Amino acid sequence: MTPRSIIERVEELRILLNNAAHAYYVLDEPLINDSVYDRLYKELIDLEGKHPELKTSDSPTQRIGGEPVERFQRVRHRVPLFSLDNVFSFEEFASWHKRLNKTLQGKINREKLSSEASMVAELKIDGNALALTYQDGILLRAATRGDGEEGEDITTNVRTISSIPLRLLIKDPPPWVEVRGEAFMPDAVFSRINLEREGRGEVLFANPRNACAGTLRQLDPQVVASRGLDFFAYTVHLSPDLNSRDDSFLNLTCQWEALSWLKRVGFKVNPHAAFIQNLDQVRAFSNKWASDRDQLPYATDGLVIKVNDFSLQSSAGFTQKAPRWAIALKFAAEEVPSKLIRITFQVGRTGAVTPIAIFEPVLLAGTSVSRATLHNADRIADLDLCSGDTVVVRKSGEIIPAVVRVLKELRPSFAKRLIIPNQCPECFSELERELGKSVTRCMNTACPAILRGVLRHWVSKSSLDVEGFGTKLIHQLVASSLVHSIADLYRLDLHALTSLDRMGPKSASNLISSLDASKKQPWHRQLYGLGIDHVGAVNAKSLAKKFQNSDQLSSAVSNNFDAVQSISGIGPEIASSLKEWFSKDSNQKILFDLKEVGFSLGKVDVLEKASAHQEDLPKPLEGRTFVLTGIMNSLNRNQAEILIEEAGGKVSSSVSSKTDYLVAGNKTGNKRIKAERLGIRIIDEIGLMDLLNPDSPISH
Length: 700
Ligand code: IVH
Known about the structure:
The protein has 700 residues and is an alpha+beta fold.
C-alpha cells in the first residue's frame, strides 16, 4: 500500500507543476522561478520512480516519456475535420456575408434573427490542424487532420508541446471533449532550426508550416520536444454528432464563449480574436492585420470569420467540404517596389536561356529577396522592362518571387529597353530562337553551362541521387576540364579529385563511393537522369517498365513508334522527343560511354528483386485515383506523382466522378471548381502526406 501522504504529495506536485507550466507557456506570466520548478519536478520524478504505481499519463513528467514509433496509426475522426472556403478580397467577403445572411433569414424566424448575425473574427494561423481528444479531462489522443475523415495518431509527439494541457484545468471535466486548433512553429524557432540545419549541411525547411508538419511527423518524440512547437485552440466539440452544436453540458452557446472556455481550461487561445457586428468592423480588422501581421511572432495567412451563435451555425450547415457559417479571408500577396540592378542570363541543361532580374534586396513575406526569374524574352517584352527601372515584386507565402510590373512613372531618362543577347553568356556561341516559340537556346552541346546543368540533373535526388555532388563541385569539375560528360564523372580518380581546391583524400574517396553506388540505381532513374525533353520521373518509370533496356527503347522509337506513343501517359509529343533524342549520334555516344563506365542502362536481376520487394510493401493508396492541381510548396508535381504511384494510387490528368482526391496546391483553377461541384474530396499536400506513409518527405 502506498502511504496516503505520498499519494497526496504526488497529486499536489502535479497540480503545482501543471499550474506553473500553464502560467509560463500559456499565460506568459511565470508563477515560480526555474530553480523552484526544477526542484519540484525532480521531487515528482523521484516519487514516481519509487512508486511507479502512481505514474499517470497526465503527469508533467510524462511529456517526453514516449518511445520512438515505427509508424503512426491511422485513426478515424469521430467528428470530421472540415476545411474552409476562401475569399481573397473584402468585396468577395461582403458577397459571401450577404448570401449567408440571406440563407439564415430564410431558415430562422424573424424574432431570432432581427439583424445580421454576429461574427467572431480570428487570425488564420498558418500551421497544421490538430484534433485533441480528452476523456474525463485527460489527453487521450492527438491526431492530424489527414483527409478530414482519417488522420494519424501523433499523441506522443503532441504531448511534448508544452502549451497543450495533458489534463484540463477544471474540476468537473466533460466525459468526452475534442479540442481543435492549430499547431505552429514560431518564426524565431523556425529561424533557429534552419540556422542549425544549415550549419549541419542539412536541407532547409521551406517555411514554418512545413517545418511544423515535418516535426509533428517525426518518429522520435525527443526531436519534437526540441523543436519548440506551439498551439492555439479554436474549436470545442462535445458531441461526436457534427450537427449537434448542443454543447449544453458546458452551457456553451457561441464561439465567443467557446474561446473563453478553452482559455479557462488551460489552452492558449489567440489573443487577437474580435467580436464583429457589422461589415465595417471586418474591413477594419482585416486592414489592421494585413499590415500588422508582420509584427506577430508566428505566421498567419488570413482571417477566419465565423458566425458566433452555435444555433445559427447549425442552421447554416455544411457544404461537402466546408462549413457555410465560416470563411477564410486570405491576405493579399505582398508587393513591394525595388530598383532593378541588372539582368543575368542563366543557361539551363537544355540550353534554354532564362533571364533573371537582380534587384535591390527587399523584405517579402519574411525573407530577403533580391532576384526573380523573368522566364523568357516575351515576358521581358510584356513587362516593357528597361535598365534602371523600378519594379514591383510579389511573393505570397512561400511561392517564388516574381516581377509583376514596372513603375513606368519612375523610369529614368537614360533607360534602355532590355533584350536577350545574341550570344550565349557562357560560351559566346550564337543563340537561337525557334519561330513562334518564346525560348531562346544555346545550341552548343559543349557549352559549359549546359554541361553543368546536365550533370546537376544526373546527380539530383530523383535521378541517380549521387551524394556529395553540389553545385560548387560541379562548377569546379567543369571549369577545370576534368569532366566533359556524364561518363567522365565515373572516370574521376583520387588523384584527379584531390587536385581540386579544398578536396581532401577522405572526401574524394567518399565521392568515388557515391558514384559507384549510383551505378546500382534502377533503370528508370538512369533513364530519367538522361534528361530527355518531356521524360519526367513518372514517364521514365512507365517506359522502363515496358522496355527492358536502352537498346530496346532506342529501337522501339525508331521502328515501332506507335507502340511507344500508345503507352499510357506517353503520347505523341513524348514519343517524338524520344525519337529525336535517340536519333542523335551525340546521344548514342552518351549511352555507349555510360555502358563503358559500368551502367547497365536496363533492368538487372538484383534490381528486379528490389522492385519485387517493393511490390510487397503496403499500398495505402491502392485503387484510389488522384488529380493534382496548383503549385505545391515542398513537392513538385513529378515527386507527388511518384509518391502516389509508389503507394499504389493512380494519377489522372482530369477531374471526373472517378476521382477520389484532388490534391490542390496554391493557385488552383478549373479543376478545383469541378471537383467542388462533383463533391470530390480536396486535400492539400499535407493531407496527401498524411495519406502516404509516415516517413514522407514533407520536411525536406
Ligand atoms: S476553423 C470548420 N479557425 O485553416 C472550421 N481554422 O483552411 C474549421 N486554421 O483546417 C477551421 N486558424 O487548420 C479555424 N482560427 C482558425 C484557424 C483555422 C487556422 C486552419 C485550420 C483549417 C484551415 C482551413
